[in-house]
Write a structure and sequence with these properties.
This protein is α/β, with parallel strands linked by helices and about 300 residues long. The chain has two domains: about 110 residues, NAD(P)-binding Rossmann-like Domain (Rossmann fold); about 180 residues, NAD(P)-binding Rossmann-like Domain (Rossmann fold), CATH 3.40.50.720. Helix content is about 30%, strand content about 15%. α8 links the parallel β10 and β11. The longest helix is centred in the middle third of the chain and has 17 residues.
């Protein structure tokens, strides 16, 4: 059986290494692993592929791969790898991102919660001012609202709950209300506004697509506490940048931690670059050195049961 691996990426942490292929073939000695270096090369060789691991796989390619049994992608989102329209081939998306993105969210929250921006500026100015932290409040007395309470949202809740934060999750799935181990409650969209008004930290972990475009409106910003912070680690389409900029400028909210944007890279002209209470990351919340190690573990797990004779 043969697997084609198209996992080169300009981001080093997202690129497959030789040792990953060695580990894969040591687990599955009967599997021939073929590394390709472009989507064009992959497309040209699909005819004898049993499995594919790739960043990109458009829906029309399934028809070119009669022997294909499964497609694996590290990405959690579905923008670049489509499911098989005919339902013949299984598609596996990365589900390991939660633990990585939870660390990123926690770092953003602690950045604001412990005034790390101010402390960095004070260090630059050689200012010794312990009273600057007197207004800080512990996470154990704060509330976080996680909008988009899927795998990643739940991982974020675990990290916050471990520090005593009171977490509420919001899901659109009908019948999702109730509780879990890390959230005080999990509610539906109809209960978003009442919970939004109480939250100190509002976390958006929403997928892209038409259903979430501009879903978080100026009214939502207006209903937030003036001392609250917004965080976006999902997709950049869920609110208008001008609404966020206005909310920060008018002090409707205290600030924002942002990893994703409607236009990427964030344009030089964006006012967000100049805002000290806007923490900006370059769509990097899951970029860690061990990213591909985690994907490989999922790939190996997914291939078990699909390869005859595999333990």
């Amino acid at each position: 059986m043969k697997i084609y691996l198209n996992l080169d990426n300009p981001i080093r942490a997202f690129s497959l290494k030789g040792e990953h292929i060695d580990e894969l073939t040591s687990v599955f000695p009967s599997l021939e692993a073929v590394r390709v270096h472009s989507t064009e090369e992959l497309f040209a060789r699909l005819g004898d592929a049993d499995f594919v691991a790739t960043w990109d796989f458009p829906a029309e390619l399934y028809a070119r791969a009669p022997a294909l049994k499964a497609v694996f992608t590290p990405a959690a989102g579905r923008e670049r790898t489509a499911a098989d329209p005919a339902g013949r081939v299984s598609t596996h998306y990365g589900s390991f991102h939660g633990m990585l993105m939870a660390e990123t969210l926690l770092s953003m929250i602690l950045y604001f919660n412990r005034r790390l921006g101010l402390l960095t500026e004070n260090k630059r100015k050689r200012v010794w001012d312990p009273d600057a932290l007197s207004s800080c409040r512990s996470l154990s007395v704060q509330r976080a609202l996680i909008v988009g309470y899927g795998n990643i949202g739940r991982a974020c809740a675990r990290s916050l709950a471990a520090l005593g934060c009171n977490v509420t999750g919001v899901r659109r799935t009908r019948g999702s209300g109730g509780k879990d181990r890390n959230a005080r409650a999990v509610v539906g969209p109809d209960e978003l506004m009442p919970n939004l008004e109480k939250a100190d930290h509002v976390v958006l972990v929403l997928p892209g697509g038409n259903e979430t475009t501009d879903i978080f409106t100026r009214e939502h910003f207006m209903r937030m506490k003036k001392s609250a912070y917004l965080y976006n680690l999902g997709r950049g389409n869920c609110f208008r940048e001008e609404d966020l900029v206005r909310a920060i400028e008018e002090r409707t909210i205290a600030g924002a931690g942002l990893d994703v944007f409607a236009a990427e890279p964030l344009p030089d002209a964006s006012p967000l670059w100049g805002m000290p209470n806007a923490f900006i990351m370059p769509h990097a919340s899951a970029i860690y050195d061990d990213y591909m190690d985690l994907f490989l573990a999922e790939l190996i797990g997914g291939l078990h049961g699909l390869i005859p004779g595999a333990d």
